[in-house]
Design brief:
- The protein has one domain: Porin (Beta Barrel).
- 12% of the residues lie in helices and 59% in strands.
- The protein contains three helices and 14 strands.
- The protein has an eight-stranded antiparallel β-barrel. Strands 4-5 form a two-stranded antiparallel ribbon. A two-stranded antiparallel ribbon has the order 10-13.
- Strand 8 and strand 9 form a beta hairpin.
- It is elongated.
Length: 256
């Protein structure tokens, strides 16, 4: 009988706590991140001149990228939320490689500039959860601005659909032809990081601004073209992409 009474008390207290905190809640989050990539393998081949022709290699290594992401989250209690995310991250480098127009004797008569672009991009989707450490520390019970402050640990787990394209556009009047190469891969993608956010408003719809930073793991297998052929250097070095690295960004969250 005593155990039954304890269980009823705990369930009642839990229900009253949810009602007092106005949970559950649903929120939508839109954010922007800057990513630092670990594209060492790709960059080594680029700097050696083996992946593209007639371009300034020093300007076309991939070092960092940008990411736009949205989250849709359900928060049953103040301690954590769970939901889904989707994002688009990309990096591109452009240059103006030099070409020579040739005369009828195959001698150079004029130097002119073409266009070259190297671009990596990825669409990511998966599940996301945030555990709010600030709730454990009872920030919500403070009588000052701290009751509007939240911080916690975020975890994203999903899949990334990556792509790399190399687009060489010579100027008109030269012998070289246009060259467009595209390769892709599908792989596991995950992120772990810290979030700090502050409630700007606490009306019927709350609005929150936040900052976050952490680490992304996203390494691909050898990328392939649409015919399922791997991108190889000298037919013995398959190329993979490594979007892994630290990230930091800002986001806006609206919910009810």
């Amino acid at each position: 009988m005593r155990i039954k009474s304890i269980i009823i008390f705990l369930i009642t207290s839990f229900a009253l706590n949810i009602n007092a905190q106005e949970y559950p809640m649903i929120s939508f989050e839109l954010g922007y991140d800057l990513h630092i990539y670990d594209m060492n393998e790709l960059n080594n081949f680029l700097s050696s001149g083996l992946l593209a022709n007639q371009l300034d290699q020093s300007e076309n290594t991939i070092q960092n990228g940008q990411n736009f992401q949205f989250n849709l989250a359900y928060q049953p209690i103040a301690l954590f939320d769970i939901g889904a995310y989707g994002g688009y991250q990309y990096a591109n480098q452009k240059s103006a490689p030099s070409f020579y127009q040739m005369n009828e004797y195959n001698l150079p008569i004029k130097e002119c500039s073409g266009r070259y672009e190297l671009r990596t991009e990825a669409i990511t989707v998966g599940l996301a959860t945030t555990w709010y450490v600030s709730h454990v520390l009872k920030f919500q019970e403070k009588e000052n601005m701290l009751n509007r402050l939240h911080f916690g640990v975020e975890l994203n787990v999903g899949i990334g659909f990556s792509k790399i394209s190399s687009n060489l556009q010579p100027p008109s009047g030269v012998i070289e032809k246009k060259e467009y190469l595209s390769y892709s891969s599908q792989d596991f993608q995950g992120k772990i990081g810290l979030k700090v956010e502050y409630d700007i408003t606490k009306s019927l719809f709350f609005t929150t601004i936040g900052f976050k930073g952490g680490y992304q793991y996203f390494t691909t297998k050898a990328v392939k073209d649409r015919l399922d052929n791997e991108w190889n250097v000298n037919n013995k070095h398959p190329i993979s992409l490594d979007f892994s690295g630290v990230y930091f960004g800002i986001y806006l969250k609206v919910g009810k």
